[in-house]
């Protein structure tokens, strides 16, 4: 406890010194987004993170600064020299003592999180005062920080609801989906609405732009459900946000029965509303995704499967396709050896011997690392 008392005494001396020497301005604004790097399909944030992994949505964030909690405040470990944070006067080694008058960092063993305090103390425009000790000369100064919003908006309108047979207990879910990599979720990119008997409903999704990647394609997925059963889907794949696509959409729904009819588009068959195959195949699709990817398929994946002229034959190759995905490869450890071992055990029903593992690793290399081709050959050999 002695070190905590010393830390507390030091903080008090800093605050008293601050009152005695007055304020000086280090800078005006810190407004740049949190830095991230895209590397091998993963997002790596500077540590410690500016916001935590809780479900709480914070409205403001500091920017591309590495921070470390200490017993005397929050130290700036590193800062991008080209950032607005650096241009405003913050430097590597500076210590943030208080935010809006409240101490941050460790105080008597308890963490007072800088992100939490900044969001609690910031004005409605995202401005907050920080007491900072200069890392070079130890002087104290007030930094009037303009925080950056951690939200971007996707807006839209749902139309034509008066033409649907909408049950009173139905709900509408709308989600921003990464079509390039479906397992990369967009933080806060989902809303649920109650139709309430309206013909037209406006909506807004306040998502976190730090979870959106310029190189990826994003769609809006929307469905109407009663409980866990979907009854309507949005009619088209609406591209949004990246690659010049808009941040506003207009959604319209079609029934699940019409979606199912797509699989008969190239034949003279029709699908009655009570077609038993629809429920059976839907359950089988869900089972495959749960088994191999540990999740439910998203709307785009379901729609792609139903668009196949012969979906029953397509389902035979679905296990191969799912195990060949980058998502499955990443979940297997993101290396050839662990992936080959996992798929061998999945297909053959036992772990491979050392010789078998080496054999199939070499086979994958011979096939120029075509996972789909290697899996097809593995399945063929297992059936013999």
Detailed description of the structure:
The structure is a single chain. The chain has helices at residues 2-21, 84-87, 114-121, 256-261, 276-293, 299-306, 311-316, 318-323, 326-331, 336-348, 354-366, 371-382, and strands spanning 36-39, 42-45, 60-61, 65-70, 73-79, 95-99, 102-103, 105-107, 110-112, 127-133, 140-146, 148-149, 152-158, 171-178, 190-193, 201-207, 218-226, 229-234, 238-240, 248-251, 253-255. The chain is α+β, with helices and mostly antiparallel strands and 384 residues long. The strands form six sheets. Strands 4, 5, 6, 7, 10 and 11 form a six-stranded antiparallel sheet that branches. Strands 14, 15, 17, 18, 19 and 21 form a six-stranded antiparallel sheet that branches. Strand 1 and strand 2 form a beta hairpin.
Q: What does this entry show, briefly?
A:
The protein is an alpha+beta fold and 384 residues long. The protein is built from twelve helices and 21 strands.
Content-based structural category:
alpha+beta
Terminus-to-terminus distance = 70 Å
Question: Helix content range of the residues, please?
Answer: 25-40%
Strand percentage = 25-35%
Taking pLDDT < 50 over at least 5 consecutive residues as the criterion, the unreliable ranges are 15-57, 258-276
Discrete helix count: 12
Give the tally of β-strands: 21
Largest sheet: 6 strands, antiparallel
Mean pLDDT: 76
Shape: flat
| Gyration radius, rounded | 27 Å
